[in-house]
Amino acid sequence: MAIDDRNRPLYMISIAAELAGVHPQTLRSYEQKGLVTPRRTSGNTRMYSQADIERLNLINELTSEGINLAGVTRILDLQSRLDDREAEVEDLHARVRRLAERVRELENRTTVGAIVHVTPTRRLP
């Protein structure tokens, strides 16, 4: 499933609650606490994506391990920051690869240029 597909709002609150194994009021509470942010339709209906369902499952897993919602909030924030740093590192690796390619191109040009300038030209009689 593509990233955009994972974030597409698909489920109304009753279905999302069922998929996540919680009561719809729990989802409203999580939204108030900022743990999940469903999209809203023009009629103000909450719509949850597959990514939201996965996040809700993670919240359930953490709370079932005894972590309170403040701890869950902190964990999710740290995970988000880690994901951002990983994306930055991937971008930097791509930049380094492009720069290394460019350096190789310039070195090849320099080598070819040196050969061309060093090679004596023949004069015709």
From TrEMBL:
PROSITE patterns: HTH_MERR_1, HTH_MERR_2. InterPro entries: DNA-bd_dom_put_sf, MerR-type_HTH_dom, MerR_fam. Residues 75-109 form a coiled coil. Keywords: Coiled coil, DNA-binding. Residues 10-78 form the HTH merR-type domain. NCBIfam families: HeatShock_HspR. This is MerR family transcriptional regulator. It comes from Adlercreutzia shanghongiae. The lineage of its organism: Bacteria, Bacillati, Actinomycetota, Coriobacteriia, Eggerthellales.
